[in-house]
Amino acid sequence: MTVRFQQSAPATFKLAQEKDWSSTRIAIRGFQLRPKVYVTRLLPEVAMERINSFCDADVWRGELPPSREVILRKARDVEGLVCLLTDKIDAELMSEAPNLRVISNCAAGFDNIDIAEATKRRIVVGNTPDVLTETTADFTFALMMAAARRVVEGDRSVRGGGWKTWGPMILLGQDVHGATLGIVGLGRIGAAVARRAKGFGMRVLYYSRTRRTEVETELGVRYAEFDRLLGESDFITLHVNLSRETFHLIGKKQFEKMKKTCVLVNTSRGQVVDNMALYEALRVGSIAFAALDVTEPEPIPADHPLLTLQNLIITPHIASASMKTRTEMALIAAENLIAGLKGELPLHAVNPEVLGHC
Ligand code: NAP
What we know:
The chain has 358 residues and is an alpha/beta fold.
């Protein structure tokens, strides 16, 4: 393991491999050993300051993510990694990073990381849920409203000189108030969307792996089997995490069960929806409209068939992108990293069993 000193000590210092340095921050003759970490994108200043206060951080400063080769090379001699959902942290990478003890993902989702492999290697993985829940729910509602009331088409029409007069039949949309909303995945964000929907006087159905009777009582939302939700909802919004079970959860069969007037909103992960089935459903009118913050792949290529459709809104994965929330996410990622390097349980650990917690 290579460690560096905080002050003007010799640049690097080799420590015996067999020694357990898990509590890190070891003081030797007034110097503090600083764990080496790699940060795959420049984060807000407060988070970088926090990371730099404890670690010897190497930071990728490019606007685009570092290449696979760069991450593999940089991970080789670090103890901690701060990464984003654009970085694939898999078994190959972990096998080439013998000192790695903490992976801190600056995102709520962690489908970019092989959690089973990390757990096997006793690498603790942190994420940043909760803090982005309300911001993501706000954006989900923004997409739903924009789709229902054709906000983007209206803007395009005005800019393109298409607005000639007030017209009784121009850009007619659908009412959100009083409509039925189907929430797929009633976790943190799903429940926050349900709360907003009740404020709009919507009837709310949900389908989720685990039934949440306390949310049913608190918000008056009703559990429905998946097919029933698909058939009865005017708006369907997806909030499941991406997994083997939720990959292409919404495909051809599911679109066939939806109302022709249905609006689909996805702020979860792109792979939850089969893109080509969505394209076909929107093209032939099996559903009316879709609004996506996430796609498969990301970014979606400019010549993708979906982008030829008018009854679709796509935003560039920005549901959590408020200044306050992104700063808080980065700070939590920094704290998760530092706690893990100290051998303590991070505020949000995906695999706490690595540190002896369940
Ligand atoms: P969460 O609290 O873990 O909620 C996920 C919900 O999905 C849980 O209730 C879970 O059930 C349910 N679920 C999982 N697999 C399912 C299945 N096969 N069938 C039905 N329900 C299933 O997560 P969250 O914080 O709400 O976030 C949800 C996802 O949103 C994240 O994983 C992330 O991918 C995405 N996200 C995107 C953005 C963005 O910028 N667009 C921002 C934040 C989050 P259990 O209760 O049984 O686990």
